[in-house]
């Protein structure tokens, strides 16, 4: 009888330790969005902590895409909700080579053709072996604590709350002024 009781105690102790370790591992693997660094399109470091208190909409962009016209609505979204939302465009050339330009060319294109005044970043990879840490956080549940996804095409959007918590993502077909996005603001 004592052996059975001892074995039960050992099994329960091992289960409890493993359960605790699993829970601690899950919590410790989640990282803060605000710890990630990325540069602006003109090369200055962007401190995402500066945006605490506002929602952030991250959008991977491209100048030669069928969705490029969304720049116009992204700018409207930026101007309409600037007191509570930061729009950040992130150039990427991974989908059909539709963002081949230099940073200077991209910046000029966006300003001249769409009057873009919202924040734009350096050109990055949003998937694959050279995925930028920002997109690792956006696409991996282990990092953002909510949901995993993959970036399917240009102009996919990720919405973050005022405290740096993941809200949701929206495929390219979801327009920037869609109620799916604006109801969150």
Spatial gap, N to C terminus: 63 Å
Task: Say which CATH homologous superfamily of the largest domain is assigned.
Answer: Glutaredoxin
Tell me the series of helices and strands, N- to C-terminal.
HEEEHEHEHHEEH
Q: Averaging pLDDT over every residue, what do you get?
A: 89
How many beta-strand segments?
7
Q: Which class best fits the helix and strand makeup?
A: alpha/beta
Number of domains: 2
Judging by the overall fold, what is the CATH architecture of the largest domain?
A: 3-Layer(aba) Sandwich
Low-confidence stretches: 10-28
Q: What overall form do the CA principal axes indicate?
A: globular
Number of helical elements: 6
The proportion of strand residues reads 15-25%
In terms of topology, how is this protein built?
Elements: H1 2-29, E1 37-39, E2 45-47, E3 55-61, H2 70-80, E4 85-91, H3 103-114, E5 119-120, H4 133-139, H5 141-144, E6 157-160, E7 166-170, H6 179-182
Parallel strand pairs: 3-4, 4-5
Antiparallel strand pairs: 1-2, 3-6, 6-7
What can you tell me about this protein's structure?
- The radius of gyration is 21 Å and the shape is globular.
- It has 185 residues and is of the alpha/beta class.
- The protein has helices spanning 2-29, 70-80, 103-114, 133-139, 141-144, 179-182; strands at 37-39, 45-47, 55-61, 85-91, 119-120, 157-160, 166-170.
- The protein has 2 domains: 1-30; 33-182, 3-Layer(aba) Sandwich (Glutaredoxin), CATH 3.40.30.10.
- The model is unreliable at 10-28 (pLDDT under 50).
Nutshell version of this structure?
The chain has six helices and seven strands; from the N terminus they run αβββαβαβααββα.
């Amino acid at each position: 009888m004592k052996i059975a009781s001892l074995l039960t105690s050992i099994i329960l102790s091992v289960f409890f330790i493993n359960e605790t370790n699993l829970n601690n591992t899950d919590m410790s693997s989640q990282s803060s969005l605000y710890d990630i660094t990325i540069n602006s399109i003109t090369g200055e470091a962007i401190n995402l902590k500066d945006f605490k208190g506002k929602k952030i909409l991250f959008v991977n962009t491209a100048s030669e895409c069928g969705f490029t016209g969304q720049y116009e609505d992204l700018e409207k979204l930026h101007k309409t909700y600037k007191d509570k939302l930061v729009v950040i465009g992130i150039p990427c050339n991974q989908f059909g080579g539709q963002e081949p330009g230099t940073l200077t060319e991209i910046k000029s294109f966006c300003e001249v053709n769409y009057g873009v005044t919202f924040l734009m970043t350096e050109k990055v990879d949003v998937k694959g072996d050279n995925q930028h840490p920002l997109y690792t956080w956006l696409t991996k549940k282990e990092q953002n604590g909510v949901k995993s996804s993959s970036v399917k095409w240009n102009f996919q959007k990720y919405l973050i709350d005022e405290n740096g918590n993941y809200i949701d993502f929206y495929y390219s077909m979801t327009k920037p002024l869609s109620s799916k996005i604006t109801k969150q603001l």
